[in-house]
Structure formats: C-alpha cells, structure tokens
C-alpha cells in the first residue's frame, strides 16, 4: 500500500528562541522530517539572529518565505513544514482543539521558560506552550544557560510539577564523541526518545558503546 504524500506519522511543534544551541534545532528538524512528521515551526527574532550567528543560516523573517526555505533545505514534502509568525494568533498552535500534542522548545531561553512558567503568553511561542500544558500534552524545554540562578531553578521545578520535561542542553561524553555533530546528536537523540520516535543517531547506554 502506497503512502499518500501528506500522510504523516504525526505533528510536532518546534520553537526556536534566542538561547545558544541553534544547531540542536536544525538537526532536530532534519530528523523529524526524515521520520515523516509534520512540523509547525515558530522562531523568535532573537532565535533567527542566533541561528545566523552560530551556524550561518539565515531564516527569512516572513513566515511564508521561511516555510519555503525550510521545505527546500530539508527537501520536505508539500505541507510538511509550516512556519508561523509571532503574532499569528489564528494558527493551529494557538488553539487547544488544533495544536499538536507534542512541542519542543529548542533551544529554550530562560526568559521564554519564565514566561511559559507564569502563563505570560505575549507571543505565539509562549501561547503554543501554554496550550500544550493546559491540554495535558508533551512539552520539552531544552534550556540553555549556565549557571542556573535560583529563579531559573524555581521555574524549572514549577514546570516539572506541571508535567513539562526540562532537558538542559547538556550532552554526555560516555559515547566517546569524536565531533561536535556527535554531541549535537546526543541531545537530539534524547529528545526523539522522549517523543517516542525511533532514532539511531545516538547509541543507548550499555548497547553500542
């Protein structure tokens, strides 16, 4: 039986904020596209600056242009990637009845984490996260900061108590990484594991190490 071109395995919302770690986001998008997932991508203005600064990728400011950019970059299927602007309040991710049940903020700034923690939905990233929490979906925050202040830790605890997965961008070294790409894959593999998506980019402890 042939799979229809728009018959995806599921939907995931990916949010990119202004924290360091842009390479994680791009690799996660690449892996989810390869796994045949439909993606809604949200990127803050600071997120676009960090992506350009860290990996030299310029994400267009226009949502339509950004959708086309990502689709071409990852050779995605038609309608597999849709980028929404920060004030597109009528997008699916803003509605409890339409938003994907899975969302990853990668990387997640501590400012975005604070806004999510306290329900301060001033942009679409924060609203989308709020929707996932209230609908009892799966929200993963790949927080990138060091050291963590007491306030950061209090926000993490509060979010964890609400069912949010706090996954700091802290790759392990037990798999004997030989490159930066190996470290990136370590974290992206962990995210995919938590999303319940099969992956072979990162060996599990005790198996192929």
Helix content: 25-40%
Number of strands: 6
Strand content: 5-15%
The Cα radius of gyration reads 16 Å
Number of helices in the DSSP assignment: 7
Catalytic activity: dimethylallyl phosphate + FMNH2 = prenylated FMNH2 + phosphate
Organism: Colwellia ponticola
EC number: 2.5.1.129
Enzyme class: transferase
What does this structure look like?
This is Flavin prenyltransferase UbiX. Pfam families: Flavoprotein. Its EC number is 2.5.1.129. Residues 11-195 form the Flavoprotein domain. By secondary structure, the chain is of the alpha/beta class. It has helices at residues 22-34, 45-55, 63-73, 110-117, 124-134, 150-161, 180-195; strands at 11-16, 38-43, 81-84, 102-108, 138-143, 165-166. The chain has a 6-stranded parallel beta sheet with strand order 3-2-1-4-5-6, sandwiched between helices. The longest helix is centred in the last third of the chain and has 16 residues, at 180-195. It is globular and about 45 Å long. It starts with 10 loop residues before the first strand and ends in a 14-residue tail after the last helix. The mean pLDDT is 93.
How are the secondary structure elements laid out?
Blueprint: E1 11-16, H1 22-34, E2 38-43, H2 45-55, H3 63-73, E3 81-84, E4 102-108, H4 110-117, H5 124-134, E5 138-143, H6 150-161, E6 165-166, H7 180-195
């Amino acid at each position: 039986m042939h799979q229809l071109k728009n018959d995806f395995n599921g939907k995931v919302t990916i949010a990119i904020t202004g924290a360091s770690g842009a390479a994680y986001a791009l690799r996660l998008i690449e892996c989810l596209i390869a796994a045949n997932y439909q993606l809604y991508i949200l990127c803050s203005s600071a997120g676009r600056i960090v992506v350009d600064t860290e990996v030299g990728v310029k994400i267009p400011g226009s949502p339509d242009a950004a959708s086309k950019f990502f689709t071409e970059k990852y050779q995605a299927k038609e309608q597999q990637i849709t980028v929404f602007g920060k004030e597109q309040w009528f997008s699916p991710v803003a509605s409890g009845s339409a938003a994907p049940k899975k969302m990853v903020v990668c990387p997640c700034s501590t400012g975005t984490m604070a806004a999510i923690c306290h329900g301060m939905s001033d942009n679409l990233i924060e609203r989308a996260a709020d929707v996932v929490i209230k609908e009892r979906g799966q929200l993963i925050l790949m927080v990138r900061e060091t050291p963590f202040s007491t306030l950061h830790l209090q926000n993490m605890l509060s979010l964890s108590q609400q069912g949010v997965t706090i996954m700091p961008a802290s790759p392990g070294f037990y798999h004997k990484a030989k490159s930066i790409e190996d470290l990136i894959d370590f974290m992206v593999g962990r995210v995919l594991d938590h999303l319940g998506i099969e992956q072979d980019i990162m060996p599990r402890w005790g198996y192929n190490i």
